[in-house]
Amino acid sequence: MQMLLVLLAMWSGQRPMGYDVRHGAVIVSMEELQAHPRSYYGKVVTVDGNLHRTFTETAFTINQKGFLRSGPDILIISNVPKEKAVTPLEHSVDAGRAVRITGLVQPYDRDKLEGVYGPLHLEKYEGQSFMKSPVLLVIKTPST
Prior knowledge:
The structure is a single chain. By secondary structure, the protein is of the alpha+beta class. The chain has 4 helices and 8 strands, in the order αββαβββαββαβ. Strands 3-4-5-8-7 form a 5-stranded mixed beta barrel. The longest helix is centred in the first third of the chain and has 10 residues, at 3-12. The relative contact order is 0.22.
């Protein structure tokens, strides 16, 4: 998909079970990522989920797929609009639709994230579940 993500995955030196060769990423469920976030910090992962909240065109959340959703949302921050950051699994990027996302896992630290990506406009969402979850950073190069 994007050379930067492949290089980051190769740099980590690991190719565990569920390795997505096309993206240089570990395929992981939202449940696994939320249960063991420290195991994935600094690694590139591919996660499936449903689009949930949209804060800006480059900051949004996903939640678990399925009828009975549980667990916190995961915040996605991208350097490209949502439509280019995700792969739709249901031919749509509307709220509630299933998507696949590949990104670098980082802990949530609003000050650091806004220092790099600019204002995320999350002020009215302080204390929400996604602030206790890891963040996926989707960095696409101009050629992707």
